[in-house]
User: Fold these one by one.
Assistant:
Number 1:
Amino acid sequence: MSKHRVSRRQFLSYTLTGVGGFMGAAMIMPMVRFAVDPVLKAAGASDYIATDVKVADLTTEPTRVDFSYEQQDAWYTSTVTNTAWVYKNDNGEIVALSPICKHLGCTVDWNTDKSNPNQFFCPCHYGRYTKDGKNVPGTPPIAPLDVYEYQEKDGYLYLGATKPNPIGQGA
Ligand code: FES
């Protein structure tokens, strides 16, 4: 006979501990899964968002391009719509400018200030930018409009993150 016999009390204690642990884990695991799920999900498949603009259709006149994508914010998914002003410069290179004014973040428009044609104009405090996004000295913005990174895929324009405009400051 073994010296390590389990008493009825010990057997009940072990059994209840085991069942209790199992039930506790069954209740907690979904909560843990819910808490870390966004962290476990892979990031977006691509950093570039497709637009419906054909690169061949771009001209030297800035065109407003709206594009949307799904944004995951922890457990909340929303559709975000961004805008770019896109044209081809004299070298045929694509220029995609952010519309966010570098003064206080209003939205700039192209060629809407009749007294200063062919410039980007911010109606909030009359900020102005030349066509390449450079801020016009003497107006409130103190830096050029940011530029979007871009790619061409299957003839269509894809836009990525914004970065500081390489043309340098106007004032
Ligand atoms: S926010 Fe654009 S000029 Fe002030």
Number 2:
Amino acid sequence: MSKFLGTVLKNLIYGKIIIQENSSGTVPEVCNMGIIFYLFVFIFGLIVGSFLNCLIYRLALPSSTQNIECSVGGLKNRSYCPFCKHILGWQDLIPVFSFLFLKGKCRYCKKPISFQYPLVELATGLLFLLIINYQLFPKIEILSNLTIVELLDVCFLFFVSCFLIIIFVYDLKHFIIPNQVIYPAITIAFIYNVYQLAINNQQLAINNFLSAFGAAAFFLIIVLISKGKWMGVGDIKLAFFMGLLLSFPNILVALFLSFLIGAIIGIGLILTE
Ligand SMILES: [Zn+2]
């Protein structure tokens, strides 16, 4: 992990992207674009994170009131304070900075804003940065050399990280994984694997499909044995999604870690009761 962060830092400090060769011939025109590119990706991640917060909030509304709530003040889909329902202006919606500037309180009713908002935004920004660095680092020097396949991989990982952030926060708050999130997540991961088959990456795709069915079957057995007390049906769907992403044997590591973390948190909850 430290090596990972080291690479990100090194890119930030020495980041240079060769844009194009200049007209006179072989000497490439070198621009110090690395920092700007990373900054752009990070800011893009912050904005996406802000959108994810909005989705997490609206997913929790009862479906009958979702449309009414969304059109408070006659402005459909504008963000508003959950307490005083005041429509938020652009100056209240700048990721992270608005929270800091307003000292974590609503500008209009002074009720506290949840730490979830800046944390989700920062997490999304950082994840996007790590994805870009992990996927493109050796090639980031020459952006124009990126292939469509590499760009699609990055887009896919952006989507996956968004789905996982929503699932993590929503499950933490409401103890359920909403079908409106896990089904599209599984669909996109499924299509991605079909696409892997199409580009002659059969081994990976087949491994992913088998891992997905294996992990889901394992959780199904646990749910059946415990009659839903240890795990819920949502966990079966999540395991299927994880399998589609991780392949064998990575899926085993992920499942082991999820059980371990679950056990630690479970013991912690029992002790603090
Ligand atoms: Zn308010």
